[in-house]
Amino acid sequence: MGNSKKYLAECIGTFILTFMGCASAMFLGTGAPGGHLAVAFAFGLSIVAAAYVIGGVSGCHINPAVSFAMLLDRRLDGKDFIGYVAAQVVGAIIAAAALKTLLCFGLQDLTGGLGSNGVANAGGVMGALFVEVVLTAIFIFTILGVTADASKASVAGIVIGLTLTFVHIVGIPLTGTSVNPARSIGPALFAGGAALTNVWVFIVGPIVGAAVAFALYRLIKSE
């Protein structure tokens, strides 16, 4: 029962992140004045909100790349890793389905793809892959550090949320910012086309970035 609660928490948290973040991109856009920052803060504040609700239940990973880093750092076992990732992907798919449903009421999707990620503005597949590796590494390097110290627990959600915000500020014009395979998979499944064709970039990039973050974190923490 305990594990089921963790998985449910991860599903709900990933739903919140994907729905609020992608909805902000879809309906606010990034081209209008302040739009870029509004979307970045929507993703960041979603993490803050979720962290203080489900952090004590599951740790509020809500991101397969985060769970992978925690697996590497032995803070998560293999069974829970699989359960977490499955729950996260399900949460993101449900969020994308909800976003698709909103369009049935006549709302306009300014992104044309439910806030899905893209490679064109980053110079193609390899450019987008590089961007995602670097941004994810920065994001998860921060998470590994701030969550390792119990004395920082009260501010961890805020630090992580702000880090996700500044990562999005840089990444939105380039790839739309993933740093989270689940957040990319959900919208891509419903958007189809190039979003689905290139979704592997936003799975591989964050996973590699998580491994890089872990390696760097262990390097500076090694005695």
Explain what the structure shows:
The model has no long low-confidence stretch (mean pLDDT 95). The chain has helices at 2-28, 35-58, 64-72, 78-103, 125-148, 153-171, 181-191, 193-197, 201-221. The longest helix is centred in the first third of the chain and has 27 residues, at 2-28. The protein has 223 residues and is mainly alpha-helical. Helices cover 74% and strands 0% of the residues.
The helix fraction, in percent, is over 70%
| Shape field | globular
- What is the string of SSEs from the N terminus onward? HHHHHHHHH
Structural class: mainly alpha
| Helix count from the secondary structure assignment | 9
Radius of gyration: 16 Å
Summarize the structure.
The protein has 223 residues and is an all-alpha fold. The protein has nine helices and no strands.
Structural features:
223 residues; mainly alpha; 9 helices
What secondary-structure arrangement, pairings included, does this model have?
Blueprint: H1 2-28, H2 35-58, H3 64-72, H4 78-103, H5 125-148, H6 153-171, H7 181-191, H8 193-197, H9 201-221
